[in-house]
Amino acid sequence: MTDPYDRSRLDELLASPDSAVRCEAARNPSIPSEVLVELAVSDDVEVLLGLADNPSVSADVLLLLATAECEEVRHAVAHNRATPTGMLGLLACDVDEYVRRGVAENRSAPLPLLRLLLTDPDDDVSSHAFSTAVSTFCPNGAVPTDEDAYDAAVERLVMWLIATDHRQSIDA
Fold first, then answer.
1. Residue 99 and residue 89: Cα distance in Å, rounded?
2. What top-level branch of life does the organism fall under (predicted)?
3. Each residue's pLDDT tens digit in the chain (172 positions)?
4. What's the pTM value of the predicted model, to 2 decimals?
5. How many C-beta neighbours within 10 Å does residue 9 have?
6. What phi and psi, each to the nearest 5 degrees, are found at residue 114?
């Protein structure tokens, strides 16, 4: 879109037979909030996926998307770093492992939520939760490729897990 926001051009793009075009159109951060709400009730999964990835989407729209029937849309909401913590908590309990994996991959997910996902019955979910949790203990936020740095980050994560276990047993 040449203008940041042009409703007739947006409607044209959203009507495109190309699903990638519809998805990208819904990602446009210049779309006014009232139009984002309109789009959130669309039957078009590609539009919903684009909305879930739109940096301007409100928590209310994310909540609508988090309750979508399509697990791909719920996964996109779970993966969105702007998704509120409470909503991530609900998505972490989703029946679909793909949705839970979205939370496990979300670098904005709080450590207590990642801790819960470390024990997920799906190995892929728990593995992603582990990698994301380890990355929070790394200076640059990325899982290190250097073995010593990785071991140090894992050690910090384990110490945090032990400390929170100890605090929980004291509080009980």
1. 11
2. Bacteria
3. 445 668 888 888 878 888 888 888 889 888 888 888 888 888 889 989 999 999 889 999 999 999 999 999 999 999 999 999 999 999 999 999 999 999 999 999 998 999 899 999 999 999 999 889 888 777 677 777 788 887 888 888 888 888 876 555 445 4
4. 0.80
5. 14
6. -65, -35
Lookup: tokens for 39:
């789009």
* DSSP states of 35-48: HHHHHTT-S-HHHH
**Which tokens sit at 62?**
């994310």
What residue type is assigned to position 104 of the chain?
A: A
CB 105 within 8 A of CB 79: yes
Token pair, residue 124, equals 């892929």
Structure tokens at 12: 């044209």
